[in-house]
Amino acid sequence: MPRRPLDHPASMASAPVSPDRSHAGPAPLPSPDQPTPLLGNLTPSQFMRRYWQKKPLLIRQAIPQVAAPLSRDELFDLAGSDDVEARLITRFRNRWQLAHGPFSGDDLPTVRQRAWTLLVQGVDLHDDRARALLDRFRFVPDARLDDLMISYATDGGGVGPHFDSYDVFLLQVHGKRRWRIGAQRDLSLEEGVPLKVLRHFEPDEEWVLEPGDMLYLPPHIAHDGVAEGECMTCSIGFRAPSTGELTSQFLYHLAESGSGGATSAALYRDPGQPAVECPAELPHALVAKVGEMLAKVRWQERDIVSFLGAYLSEPKPSVFFEPPARPLNEARFAALAAKSGIRLDRRTLLLYDHRAYFVNGEENALSNARKWLPEFANKRSLSAKRFVTLSHDSSVTALLHEWYCAGWVQVGELA
Ligand code: SIN
Ligand code: CO
After folding, report:
1. Closest CA to ligand 1's atom 5
2. For a surface tag, which of 91, 101, 197, 217 has the fewest beta carbons within 10 Å of its beta carbon?
3. Can you tell me which atom of ligand 1 is nearest the CA of 224?
4. 37-238 belongs to which CATH class?
5. How far is the CA of 13 from the centre of ligand 1 (A)?
6. pLDDT tens column, 15-71
7. What is the Rg, in whole angstroms, of the alpha carbon atoms belonging to the chain?
């Protein structure tokens, strides 16, 4: 993979980076009623009640002595992979420009050049340290969690004043960034610019964030973050599908699954159709009849659960699970898991309700798995001891071995 030339200023070269936790297990689950520095000593329950989707919150030293999950060079390397969404935003000579990755080392401006930003999306899918940072925010349901984006900027770099349609936690992990925010109503955008930049930005608050500081923003709060010197920011983003997307995806799911009468074999019939003079004209009777057919489509809550479970646990298109190079057979897998425990691969999405579970887009009945699967889905790991207890039921070992062979589960030491 291409590497950047070593022409960087000393500041970033010596920046702290999280130790490689590629063999470490997931972070412990945040407890809803425990005050945490991450939320300015509020409990997650208080934060959700007072701020979530409601108003911004600045948290000084949310993560004291924070370390960037990736070094600058690691981030630049990642931006060179084809399966990573990376964007380069420059504002040279007062002109915004946007380019899409992958970027080789030569595609990026030098780190001595001012006013550019590299945004790398979905870093949690590629790195366990980034995934561990995202896990700190699991006081919000997994169904809402989207990804961890890391931005790197040189002095004066930013993406311009804009708003997002989703909630975001902006955690400063290296250097300083000046944020200005405003709750303005006028969200009109500049024309002829390749980015969503607000035409009139009217900030009403301003702060300089230092490493460890974090800003929470609900959707549609205008914001602009400008690097003061070289800096890195992690954005923990949430997904908020639109009504249009949910409706079209749900109807597609209903038709595919054959429920709700959406795939009824009844054919369109028109025994009353008279001969016409204007064959190109859409018959009104056809419109009315199709309206009647559509009005018969019905669904129940379990169709919605099935749809949401499959839709929200579907891996992103860039995710390909790799089976282990030399998979252990079931007995060896069980022996190793009994020593080291197991954990979900960082990319695995596992959701459940009282009736079913959904793993990487596939639905299955919860039935006997109800004794252990919710625990595994919530903790994303099972200790060696817990695995030993559960493996007395051979169906548990068989299923987990299947997931291991698919690359969905890793055998490994826990943190
Ligand atoms: C950034 O990190 O540079 C931009 C993130 C955002 O404004 O959402
Ligand atoms: Co934003």
Report:
1. 235
2. 197
3. 7
4. mainly beta
5. 22
6. 667 765 444 455 678 999 999 999 999 999 999 999 999 999 999 999 999 999 999
7. 25
